[in-house]
Design brief:
The chain is an alpha/beta fold and 248 residues long. It has eight helices and eleven strands. The protein has two domains: 32 residues; 194 residues, 3-Layer(aba) Sandwich (Rossmann fold).
Length: 248
């Protein structure tokens, strides 16, 4: 099938018919079909669905259906956080919101026994002058709620304020894992300028908004910035951007 502008021509009707039948069979087989978080695919194993420790962490910590719908994104975070756990350095999440992804990661990879610190940054409130859009739970109580959520996690540091200014309240010397999700380019760029130099060899950086068309300003701003540091960003089907700092 060739797509040209607003029209398309089927150059092999039998092959196209066969493809449609494959889709029909996949849809009819629930275990081979996935549709969530703007991702529709089939004929995959969807291994995260059978990773019981991960699924248990999701069920334990998710507080809404929305947090469950981003399960594939969260699984990717957990996978690379597990790898980063072996490295020197602490964990960072910029744009923690309600703390769900950090909570799932901490539980799934048993960060408590690693000796690492997990720094969570967020304004937790929204002002009309903010570039990014507001979220349903933004408000004066959210910071306290997140602090209480991690009361039993002494290694988690919940820091309120706008980045990068809030980094002055606490920031790791070395970083093994960083997750950035600010929904806007300027603050993400400034955060990355501080984070990237602290990343140890092998460290993982995940940019939540990187591949989303509606957040194109992040990609436009972050591609040249990462290039200055000699780093490339891999766009994932989930919309995330993945960066691994080379060892040499």
């Amino acid at each position: 099938m060739i797509v040209n502008g607003d029209s398309f021509n089927i150059i092999n009707p039998e092959l196209f018919k066969h493809s449609l039948e494959g889709i029909r069979q996949s849809v009819a087989t629930p275990d081979s079909f996935y549709s969530a978080d703007n991702v529709i695919c089939w004929n995959r194993h969807f291994s995260f669905m059978t990773d019981e420790p991960f699924m248990e962490a999701m069920r334990k910590n998710a507080t809404s259906n929305i947090e469950m719908t981003i399960i594939w994104r969260t699984y990717i975070l957990c996978h690379f956080a597990k790898l980063a756990r072996r490295l020197e350095g602490d964990f960072v999440e910029v744009g923690a919101y309600k703390g769900n992804t950090a909570n799932v990661i901490a539980d799934r990879i048993d960060l408590a026994s690693s000796g690492k610190q997990y720094y969570l940054y967020d304004a937790f409130e929204h002002k009309e002058t903010d570039i990014h859009h507001s979220m349903p739970e933004h408000g004066p109580e959210l910071y306290t709620t997140v602090k209480e959520r991690f009361a039993a996690y002494p290694f988690v540091k919940v820091i309120k304020g706008y980045v990068p200014e809030s980094f002055e309240k606490g920031f790791p010397e070395k970083i093994a894992f960083a997750h950035i999700d600010l929904n806007q380019a300027p603050a993400e760029v400034e955060a990355l300028k501080r984070i990237i130099p602290c990343m140890v060899p092998g460290a993982v950086l995940v940019l939540d908004d990187y591949g989303w068309w509606s957040y194109g300003t992040q990609k436009e701003a972050e591609d040249p910035l990462l290039a200055e540091f000699g780093l490339d960003i891999l766009e994932l089907p989930t919309g995330q951007g993945l960066v691994i700092k080379p060892y040499a």
